Amino acid sequence: MAKILPDISRTFSEYLLIPRLTEKKHIASNVSLQVPIARHKVGKPSRQMINIPFVSASMQAVSGVDMGIALARKGGVAFVYCSQSIKEQADMIKKIKHHKAGFVESDSNVQPNTTLKEAIAIIEETGHSTLAVTDDGSNKGKFLGILTDKDFWEYEDDVKKCVSEFMTPVDQVVFGTVGISLHQANLILHREKKECLPILDKSGNLDSLVFKKDFFDHKNNPSELLDEKKSLIAGAGVNTHDYKERVPALVEAGATIFVLDASDGYSEFQKETAQWMRKTYGDAIIIGGGNVVSGEGFRFLAESDAIDFVKVGIGGGSICITREQKGIGRGQASALLEIIEEREKFAKEKGEYVPICSDGGLANDTQIIIALAMGADMVMMGRYFAMTDESPTPKVSIKGRLYKPYWGEGSNRARNWQRYSHDAKSHSYKFEEGVDAYVPVVGPVTDVLDVTLDKIRSTMCNNGALTLKEFSEKAILTRISEQSFIEGGTSNVFTVDNDTLENV
Ligand code: MZP
Questions:
Q1: Residue 361 CB less than 6 A away from ligand 1
Q2: Ligand 1 contacts CB of residue 318 (under 6 A)
Q3: Residues known to be catalytic
Q4: Angle between helices 268-281 and 243-253 (to 10 degrees)
Q5: What is the pLDDT of residue 52?
Q6: pTM score > 0.90 for this model?
Q7: Which mutation among 56, 59, 323, 421 tests ligand 1's pocket best, with the greatest number of atoms within 8 A of CB?
Q8: Cα-to-centroid distance, 411 and ligand 1 (Å)
Q9: Is the omega angle on the peptide bond into residue 291 within 30 degrees of 0, that is, cis?
Q10: In 27-152, which residue ranges form alpha helices assigned H by DSSP?
Q11: Which regions in the chain score pLDDT beneath 70?
Q12: Which of 62, 83, 263 to mutate for ligand 1's pocket (most ligand atoms within 8 Å of CB)?
């Protein structure tokens, strides 16, 4: 006979935190949001920390190059989606890795015989005011000079003339050589009163550019997640089908953190994939498994030894209809609480701590905070990031408001049936598990994250915690009734939009 669990499936919005003593040291500037993403011995450091507890979903409408760069710059990880060809995914990883904090590959380049008119068109199209001039017009060609928008006046100068007549030639350009540190490059820029420093190799070929404005950008991103070579850390989703070809290409491209992208990860396919990856690459890579929603699912993955962190959640995603379609899944809070308990047991028995990622269904900042308080080390989100400028989709205007398309990986649009069926070649399912939708545009990811992170810091201080570990250890949560939920919103007042107020 089927077993019925004693408690019903619960969600984050059914819980509230009871504040603990806030001591004088509990101020936002003392709070650390660093969390482990790699399994480690209890009491020992993890071989990979992330600087904020946020990762973005491995989805076509969420995690591309721009998200990979923006999120790593804030201290988190974007998992570049695997529902694309191996080459396309590897190229995206390469672009993230090449975004060397401070040293950028020049994407606007011309040849000396390019006309001024063509150069102006590039400046207008890209918004870049500095063009590198190389012999072959590539970003690694022999460096011949620099053209900036200050070198010509399009209303007076003859735009049919060649760039060579306007550019600053190489013998008059201040440049740095490969190997120079970012600090040294910035000192030269300051001393020479320049905005851009080309970096050349020994043969005089262009390597990269350092911009003065990026110095301030770098200062504004003190939590950047960098590897030992100072490149941004890149994450990638992989599936359990073509991993023997996909993973090597992604490792070669520079990815180091992987997530097995499956809606139901309690499977032998997943264990086998993770074990192959671990055997092939050892501890050089981080492997996330999932998704699971039960203690037994967690233990199955944790005991494989190959999995570093485990993702929790089935059917809670904003675009997900798995529960409606197939009748599987679990309330996210119930799933998380059971798995955290199992994780603690596992840690006591085996002496190993396995980080947990709560994935999907986080509808607002409060729910993120409750997930972290319950013991999730990090959260994975799709919708939250899909709404930002950095998601890979175009903005569309609907009735005067800006939106971005956002669709599930199990929707027909994503055509990623392999993720949902292990026997996709012999059988393709005739139903969808995800919808195709729109989300409002909210601006740059950094602005949105800054607000959410500030709320997390503030709640941690209310809870007398300076680290997220301390936060969940001290957390006391209460379940709330429907009436107290209503009490928690504004009550018995009439709220109006200030713009519509008229003086009486
Ligand atoms: P959300 O942050 O938009 O609520 O949820 C994102 C999560 O939903 C993803 O990380 C993934 O686990 C899950 N997902 C992605 N596609 C589907 C689907 O098509 C889905 N059903 O459930």
A1: yes
A2: yes
A3: 320, 419
A4: 40
A5: 98
A6: no
A7: 59
A8: 10
A9: yes
A10: 65-74, 86-98, 116-126
A11: 100-101, 214, 217-218, 415-428, 498-501, 503-504
A12: 263
